[in-house]
Design goal:
TIM Barrel, two-stranded antiparallel ribbon
Length: about 375
């Protein structure tokens, strides 16, 4: 049964011109003042969500994006501030990209933020999908196998650090601690100081391809999963794969249990009006994510997405089609209630839903949508 609602904000500024006829993504460049405005935008959203009764506000960590799409570089630091301007809202790392961090530094930063916010932080990690940031910050992404090896070892270290009084680790990428003399003894273990206030620490990870290796890793470590919301279209296959992987390690989960579904939405009086209003935002979504491989397209389609206008010539996906396939919801509130009730019936273990506006949506529209969802949809579900 659906119990909790949150929202994901990847960190885009108000872009100004939007859609296929607007500035191509690679030509966007904003001033530092405009880019820094993302923090006030997110703060305004957090205050509204706290007032409206949302459970959690998820944000993404990204770097170098002068294009204005994903502009929040440090989640734990920002969460400490947001906790001081809200009362109950929790804050989710959606996600810290582990290959850009030393795992101990990430564990320390999250633990400090969790303590300073009195347990209102939610830990989440991912492997990354922007080569510019991951490779520039010392990680590896272009070599997919090396990326996965590094990520898995990092997560193992982080979970040890969170949950053990002291720990050591010997692996392909890390030897922890360094075997050195220290104050008269040989160092063999180290302690994370401080550790998070909430024990055990729930760890969340995006489910994109439902790769068997990834599913097995999540199951072995009890990691929860987020499906959809910009990284993958919500689909039944990864939900079933997650359940099966957990069953293989002796964890009997109801379908949808320990998962959160991320749903893009835009509500209006009619489906047609909602699609018309949200189309420029959907097209910004494509301009960012399609060249990164997150929306399947042919090479000629990708070339056109990087240009201005005339997308229909290459049969670029449309919001109408996304609504038809169920990966987006556009329409009146009562239709969204039915949409969510259907998900609840299909996935009886499902408790968490994230609803989010598309990349590019202005603050005023995002706030209006969050308010409409809270007043017209959330009361139909209880937790």
């Amino acid at each position: 049964m659906i119990k909790r609602f949150g929202s994901l904000f990847a960190g885009h500024i108000d872009l100004g011109d939007m859609g296929q006829d607007a500035t191509p993504a690679n030509d966007r460049r904003y001033s530092n003042e405009e880019l820094a405005g993302v923090f006030q935008k997110a703060e305004d959203m957090a205050i509204a969500m706290d007032r409206l009764g949302y459970d959690s506000f998820w944000m993404a960590e990204h770097h170098f994006q002068h294009e204005g799409y994903e502009c929040i570089p440090n989640l734990p630091l920002f969460f400490v501030h947001l906790a001081h301007v809200t009362e109950k809202l929790r804050f989710g790392c959606g996600f810290n990209v582990a290959p850009m961090w030393h795992p101990i530094r990430l564990a320390e930063d999250f633990a400090a933020a969790d303590i300073l916010t009195k347990g209102r932080c939610i830990f989440g990690v991912a492997r990354g999908y922007h080569s510019r940031e991951v490779e520039s910050l010392g990680g590896v992404l272009l070599d997919a196998e090396a990326n996965r090896d590094l990520f898995e070892e990092q997560v193992e270290i982080i979970l040890k650090a969170f949950h053990q009084d002291s720990f050591s680790h010997s692996g392909k990428n890390y030897e922890l601690p360094a075997k050195v003399p220290y104050r008269g003894y040989e160092v063999e273990e180290v302690t994370l100081v401080p550790r998070p206030v909430n024990q055990t620490v729930d760890c969340w990870q995006p489910i994109v391809s439902a790769n068997p290796r990834g599913m097995d890793f999540m199951a072995r470590h009890g990691i929860k999963g987020i499906v959809g919301g910009g990284s993958a279209l919500m689909a039944e296959r990864p939900i079933i794969a997650y359940q099966e992987a957990n069953a293989s390690v002796g964890r009997d989960l109801a379908l949808g249990q320990n998962l959160c579904l991320g749903l893009n939405f835009h509500m209006a009086e009619t489906r047609e009006k909602a699609i018309r209003e949200a189309t420029p935002f959907f097209e910004e979504h494509l301009k960012l994510f399609a060249p990164l491989g997150m929306v399947p397209m042919r090479p000629e389609q990708l070339a056109r997405v990087n240009e201005r206008g005339n997308w229909a010539d290459q049969n670029i996906p449309t919001l109408d089609r996304a609504v038809e396939t169920g990966s987006w919801y556009c329409g009146p509130p009562e239709g969204f209630v039915e949409y969510l009730q259907d998900l609840q019936d299909r996935y009886p273990g499902l408790e968490d839903i994230n609803v989010q506006s598309s990349m590019g949506t202005p603050l005023t529209v995002m706030t209006e949508q969050l308010e409409a969802f809270a007043s017209d949809v959330m009361p139909k579900f209880g937790g």
